[in-house]
Amino acid sequence: MDIATNLLYFSIINGGGIVLASIGEWLSERSGVLNLGIEGLMSLGAVTAIIAVLSFHNPWIALIITCGVGAICGIIFAICAIIIKANQVLCGLAFTMLGIGIAEFIGKPYEGIIATEHLQPMPIPFLSSISTIGYIVFSQNIMVYLIYIIIPLTIYVVFFKTQHGLNVRAVGENPEAADAVGVPVTRIRFFYSCLGTILGTLAGGYLILASVFTWSGGLIAGQGWIAIALVMLGRYRLVYMILSGVFFGFITAIGFEGQVFNWPIPPVILNSLLYIFAIIFAIFPSFLAKNNSKKWRAPAALCTPFFRSNR
Asked: Where are the transmembrane segments (predicted)?
């Protein structure tokens, strides 16, 4: 395969973690809960995955255990931010610092160890035989199909074609009005906050089992923050978030390819490309939002605790 084909193939793989984490953040924010702990959750997910896969020698068991860790973290976060009604920003930052610290502490004995078992490509019959595009898109592992196709389509149907989805969006926009018509605001926020946390943790596990295959301190390196940014930069549109995730995966792939093939570019620049383009992405959408600010805004009740007595 030529370099361009390989770049596109690995762009989809590398972008999967950011896309999955941003979908988790999107779910949480749609219900009105801001979770800034994605960076720490991805770190916890990554170290959990490497420990589990080395212990059980099965990537699917590792992913299940990673989801379990995410569920525990989600329940703790939801209790703090939704039940106790602590400041959501501070709760998220606490999870980031705790997650990174715990991950680096328990992951020290596993640094540099390669995961011998990981997610294998699962070519789709007939489609994978299409020239070039078949290899790039239809010869990926099953998690890629889940992240880019199945999960987004399921979310679209649930959120925009069902009464339940309307209720969730109402909770994110005006929880008092939703509560007045019988929508269980606290229950919905609790569930989607936990689900978003699970996906954020799973994103870290995905990176270990599908992309990097080894744990090291600082592995996530800001990808959690980029995932949070993609929700806002993608203006809460799943399609834009997914395309942006693939783009950042492409930038990451360029950095890897450049170092492997000794391109005449300093490694520090190749390693910084992800963050340089993150800054560019932060600036560009502001021009799009000027003429239609309502279309691009966050849920109105984002980061606002719900007090039934205020209704």
From this structure: 6-27, 34-54, 60-84, 89-106, 126-159, 190-209, 215-233, 238-256, 268-289
Measured CA to CA, the distance from residue 185 to residue 82 in angstroms comes to: 10
**DSSP output for 11-71:** HHHHHHHHHHHHHHHHHHHHTT-----HHHHHHHHHHHHHHHHHHHS-HHHHHHHHHHHHH
pTM above 0.90, yes or no: yes
Q: Are the C-beta atoms of residues 156 and 142 closer than 8 Å to each other?
A: no
Which residues, other chains included, contact 252 with Cβ-Cβ below 8 Å and sequence gap of 6+?
11, 14, 15, 273, 274
Residue 289: the pLDDT is: 53
Tokens 């490497």 correspond to what residue? 50
Whole-number pLDDT of residue 253: 83
| DSSP state for residue 111 in the 8-state scheme | B
pLDDT at residue 54, rounded to an integer: 95
Which pair of structure tokens corresponds to residue 111?
């640094």
Residue listed under structure tokens 């379990």: 68
Q: Shortest CA distance to 66 belongs to which of 206, 212, 210, 224?
A: 206
Angstrom distance (rounded) from CA 257 to CA 6: 9
99, pLDDT greater than 90: yes
Q: Which of 52-66, 118-132, 234-248, 282-296 has the lowest mean pLDDT?
A: 282-296
* Token pair in block for residue 246: 């693939």
Alpha-carbon span 99 to 127, nearest angstrom: 40
What is the residue type of 144? V
Kindly state the tokens that stand for 257.
């390819």
Determine the CATH number of domain 3-310. 1.10.3470
